[in-house]
Amino acid sequence: MIGARTRLLAWLLALAAFLAGCVPAIGLDDADTDRPAPASSAPSAAVDVALPPQAAPTPTPTAVPAPPPVPQPFALNLYQEGDFVPQHTFDWCVAASIQIVHNLIDDTGGGTWGDPTHQGELWEMARARSSNSFNGANPLGWAQVLTEVGMGPYSVVSVPDYEDALQTAARAIADTGRPVGLVMWSGRHAWVMSGFESLGDPKQFPEFSVTGIRVLDPLYPHGSGQWGPSPAPNSLLTPEQLATQFVIREPRRWSTELPAGYMLVLPQA
Questions:
Q1: pLDDT at position 253 over 80
Q2: DSSP classification of residue 258
Q3: How far apart are CA 199 and CA 180, in angstroms?
Q4: I need a surface site. Which of 11, 37, 197, 258 has the fewest CB within 10 A?
């Protein structure tokens, strides 16, 4: 019996060993493949990852105000060869100036005004329209005749300041394209201002400065012993040169309706 038990036990042990050799070993790490692997406590090595370059933010444009315009030399002259007319008597400066104004304005080829007979007729017209004329023509008659014969409208303007008077005359020429009458010799003579030079265009710069004045004196070439020689037609005078003959007109007993000041026969727009 003992031998039989011993043989049975040995057989069972052999069978158990055989079965153990047929089953694959399973480690703890392989027992559950669905679980995530535990995080390692060891520090991980730094990994350099190249990031795409970031575009610099576009700055918001700031409006920069444009610099103010700087006055530039400017010139305007209505004169053309043949526009000048001399006065045919020492009394007819206003009538000759009316003919000059016509010639400066009229570029249609309608003919130059300069006939002595016509000049006398214009003088009579201006004289008849001059209040307190003392047997002559004054600026009021001058302006009215210019208006009536189609050169106007014109009006008489008195400016108390010399520089303001030059600016007023230059601005009127620039605005209307017509010349200005200058009342010279304290109210005793008539010239025509046909153009000017300035620092700044009057249409762009309200405070432009006049640097030169284009003039026509119908008394040329005679001039005056008191006031000085007549400038040649289309002469460019400095303000200082013009000021020797273009002076303030003082009221006199035969023309009290005319104000004192630097007097202009001014074209109106």
A1: no
A2: S
A3: 19
A4: 37
Q: Is the pTM of this model over 0.90?
A: no
Question: Taking 80 as the threshold, does the pLDDT of residue 41 lie above it?
Answer: no
Q: Which residues contact 219 (CB under 8 A, 6 or more apart)?
A: 86, 87, 90, 93, 189, 230
Residue 75, beta-bridge partner list: 197
Give the type of residue at 33: T
142: nearest Cα among 118, 161, 159, 123 = 123
Contact call for residues 80 and 107 (beta carbons, < 8 A): yes
Report the 3 state secondary structure along 48-102: CCCCCCCCCCCCCCCCCCCCCCCCCEEEEECCCCCCCCCCCCCCCHHHHHHHHHH
DSSP structural state of residue 208 = -
**CA-CA-CA-CA torsion sign (41, 46, 47, 52):** positive
- Select the more confidently predicted residue: 247 or 130: 247
| C-alpha Rg value of the chain to the nearest Å | 53
